[in-house]
Design a protein that fits this description.
- The structure is a single chain.
- The protein is mainly α.
- Helix content is about 75%, strand content about 0%.
- The protein has helices at about 10-15, 15-25, 45-50, 60-70, 80-105, 110-135, 140-145, 145-160, 175-195, 200-215, 215-230, 240-255, 260-275, 280-295, 300-315, 320-335, 345-360, 360-380, 385-400, 405-420, 425-440, 445-465, 470-485, 490-505, 510-525, 530-550, 555-570, 570-590, 595-610, 615-630, 635-650.
- About 55% of the residues are buried.
Length: about 650
């Protein structure tokens, strides 16, 4: 299930998980000498001794009973069902692995094929074992993600029979050092997928072991695993993710291993997307899809998920028609190729629904959301946490179609489900709080909006720490309501915190930093401190000029705010000049009737009014009033406001110009 926006996992974690497993981990296998591996609190030598094609089996009835009891020890309404599903899927994985081994013998496969398929099968065995070890001390976060992990293990195992396996090993694995690298990479992958606190340590150990192993294939697999982990962290880790994936890409190209090349380019596309480098993200995603289609075929799960990732690039650029086309094609492939309970069906249906909703196709989106809820209720149980996030997005759809009663019903349902099934600190619960805050804020219920925003902020700090970019967003949400309540002191306190976090994570030149500067400048200006507001608006203008150019509406917004602040700090001529420059840009880019253009006219009218340049003030006030009468004749309140402004100028002795009624 796709995570809510504030959960910053990598794109591959949500959309390319199946492709990543079936391509990137083929270097982890079995065969050759056996040796135990030392992992961070999990790597037991007994697991390494089990041959997936040998008589000794890892997945025994005793381990099945132990795992079932462990999952059920988390006594929530949905965990019994999860225990049943997990046990049954682990049984199926073990049975399919045994069937593949028997088939190789029956078909008298060449020794090289048996060795390479055996090496690949060991990947699923190690991951199955790592999953068993990780769930000896289960948490809600781990259990929520189980369906994805189980599906990924199965898909990776099935890929072992594809020809790509023959091209994905550079050597046999005869020594303990290489087995250690295999095992640690498998453990790190499971920990990352389950949000286990040991993921970072395991990832670092696996990368070091792969480097020492001398195997280029193992090194590429470990590099890609580490790159995925870094890409799923905060933006501070994205340069690291880019460096790791670039190194993997270079090695893959040098060896001619195109399957690794595709995964590396997909990771790099994710990083470029997060850095808002859309052209580069699209180039990489297109190439990753092309290579994947050449290797696995156009009709494959791997290609479907790469296609979906390309759709995500288009969605981030606001190209929703292209995005939904890619998502729908990917969903059609998944329906054709995957089992009925496969998570890709839900993931891709969700992506289609969300994109349709953004395009304004709310009815179609709601149909898809309804299908997803039905799947969850039949397969995971009605109280599984995944249902909460679906209800939240259903609420968003109703909010967009201005059915606020229905929106609140689904937001409330999402919050109740998430809190009961996963706890108030789970991302699904904080997302529901944020959506409820947004709804109440839009309706002008400031007290309820503040309550929900503050609850989301508190839960986020408890769950992910105070220095995360999602915490910065939560601070800005709280501040937006406090600003409306004229609590400027507390609003600025939260905005300063948000700005500090964003500069640390994003860097001082990022557009989100410009937004935070703007919000803080607005608050300081309203609080009567234009001298303190001015530097923030000037900093926002500098960032937007560099990132967006002089003719962008965002740059014009900052230029207008700089103009107002300059005027109120006594630099009247400079302030008016800045406002006029912003107005010229808005007229050219947005048009004469755009709300931002009219707002710029209004600001100039106010400035001229304060400067006692009454004729110029009247010119701008009259322009806004006449335009409002043309484009929004029913907006009586706005018209009355400008009539009052005009009357004030009339009272100052300019009655001949005031016949506007």
């Amino acid at each position: 299930m796709p995570n809510p926006p504030h959960s910053r996992r990598s794109l591959l974690s949500h959309l390319l998980a199946l492709a990543a497993i079936s391509i990137a981990t083929l270097t982890i296998g079995c065969g050759g000498a056996r040796a135990g591996a030392a992992g961070p609190g999990a790597a037991a030598p007994t697991a390494a001794l089990v041959d997936p094609c040998g008589p000794e089996q890892f997945w025994t009835p005793e381990r099945r009973a132990e795992l079932t009891a462990s999952i059920r020890s988390v006594k929530l309404s949905w965990t019994d069902r999860t225990a049943e599903i997990t046990g049954a899927e682990m049984d199926r994985i073990a049975a399919e692995r045994a069937g593949m081994c028997e088939s190789m013998v029956a078909q008298k496969a060449p020794e090289e094929a048996q060795e390479k398929v055996g090496l690949c099968l060991r990947a699923s065995l190690l991951r199955q074992w790592a999953l068993y070890e990780a769930l000896k001390a289960p948490s809600v976060a781990k259990l929520v993600n189980l369906d994805h992990v189980l599906a990924d293990i199965t898909d990776g195992m099935r890929t072992c029979q594809k020809d790509v396996v023959w091209r994905s090993y550079d050597a046999r694995l005869p020594d303990a050092g290489q087995f250690k690298a295999q095992e640690l990479t498998a453990v790190a992958w499971v920990y990352r997928k389950l949000e286990d606190e040991r993921a970072e340590e395991a990832t670092a150990l696996a990368l070091a072991a792969a480097e020492a192993s001398g195997s280029k294939a193992l090194k590429i697999a470990a590099l890609l695993n580490a790159a995925n982990y870094a890409a799923s962290s905060t933006d501070r880790s994205h340069p690291q993710a880019q460096a790791l994936a670039s190194q993997a890409l270079a090695l893959a190209k040098a060896e001619g291993w195109r399957s690794y090349q595709a995964v590396a380019e997909a990771v790099l596309a994710q990083v470029a997307l997060r850095q808002e480098n859309y052209a580069e993200a699209e180039r990489l995603a297109v190439n990753a899809l092309r290579v994947t289609e050449e290797i696995y075929g156009v009709e494959s799960l791997e290609s479907a998920l790469m296609l979906d990732a390309l759709g995500d690039v288009h969605q981030h650029q606001g190209e929703f028609a292209k995005a939904v086309s890619h998502h729908q094609r990917a969903l059609a492939m998944c329906r054709k190729l995957a089992a009925p309970q496969h998570p890709c069906l839900v993931n891709l249906a969700f992506r289609v629904a969300a994109t349709l909703d953004k395009r304004g196709n709310h009815d179609e989106a709601l149909q898809h959301y309804g299908e997803i809820l039905t799947i969850f209720q039949s397969q995971l149980g009605a109280t599984h946490p995944h249902s909460a996030i679906v209800h939240a997005f259903v609420g968003i759809s109703y909010f967009r179609r201005e059915d606020y009663t229905k929106a609140r019903e689904h937001y409330d349902q999402a919050l109740a489900l998430a809190a009961n099934a996963a706890g108030m600190e789970h991302p699904y619960a904080t997302f529901a709080h944020s959506r409820l805050g947004e709804l109440h804020q839009y309706l002008g219920d400031w007290g309820q909006a503040l309550k929900h925003y503050e609850a989301a902020l508190s839960a986020l700090i408890e769950a992910i720490g105070p220095e995360h970019e999602d915490v910065a967003s939560a601070h800005l949400n709280v501040a937006s309501v406090q600003f409306k309540l004229e609590d400027y002191l507390n609003a600025s306190h939260h905005q300063v915190k948000a700005l500090t976090i964003l500069i640390e994570i994003r860097g001082s030149e990022h557009l989100e930093v410009a937004y935070a500067h703007t919000e803080l400048g607005n608050t300081l200006g309203k609080a009567g401190h234009p001298d303190k507001a001015l530097p923030h608006h000037q900093r926002a203008l500098a960032i937007r000029l560099k990132a967006l150019g002089a003719e962008h509406p965002g740059t014009a917004e900052s230029r207008a705010k700089v103009g107002v602040a300059l005027f109120h700090t006594g630099q009247r001529a400079e302030g008016i000049a800045s406002l006029k420059e912003a107005l010229a840009t808005r007229m050219q880019v947005l048009g004469a009737e755009h709300p931002d253009t009219l707002g710029n006219h209004s600001a100039l009218g106010s400035i001229y009014h304060l400067d006692e340049q009454h004729a110029l003030a009247l010119e701008h006030y009259r322009h806004v009033l006449i335009t409002f009468r043309k484009i929004a004749p029913d907006e009586r309140e706005a018209q009355e406001f400008f009539l009052q402004r005009i009357q004030q100028v009339c009272d100052a002795g300019h009655a001949p110009a005031c016949d506007v009624r």
